[in-house]
Amino acid sequence: MKPKINHDECIGDGICEEICPEVFELRDDGLAYVIEEDPDDSLFDKVEEAVEECPTSAITVEE
Ligand code: SF4
């Protein structure tokens, strides 16, 4: 599982970090970053929730 964030779409509301701080981090530049490039499968549900809850659909996950 390889989560990615499209920074052209991210509006920096930090929802992804709230849902899964193990993988996503909101930084001072107002954008969220992936801090765990290959998360353990145990985090799959939380990553998927972040994908669904992101208001701009900026997060994608490649298998
Ligand atoms: S939930 Fe989406 S828009 Fe919000 S900070 Fe995360 S990637 Fe950016």
Descriptive notes:
With 63 residues, the chain is of the alpha+beta class. The chain has a single domain (2-62), classed as Alpha-Beta Plaits (2-Layer Sandwich), CATH 3.30.70.20. Helix content is 24%, strand content 22%. The chain has two helices and four strands; from the N terminus they run βαββαβ. The strands form two sheets. The chain has a two-stranded antiparallel sheet. Strands 2-3 form a two-stranded antiparallel sheet. The mean pLDDT is 97. Iron/sulfur cluster (SF4) is lined by residues 5, 10-16, 24, 26, 32, 54-56, 58-59. Iron/sulfur cluster is lined by residues 5, 10-16, 24, 26, 32, 54-56, 58-59.
Question: Keywords, please?
Answer:
Alpha-Beta Plaits, binds iron/sulfur cluster, 2 helices, 63 residues, two-stranded antiparallel sheet, single chain, two-stranded antiparallel ribbon
Write the layout of secondary structure elements.
Blueprint (H helix, E strand, L loop, with lengths): L1 E4 L9 H5 L4 E3 L5 E3 L9 H10 L5 E4 L1
Antiparallel strand pairs: 1-4, 2-3
This protein binds iron/sulfur cluster (SF4).
Iron/sulfur cluster binds next to α1 and β2.
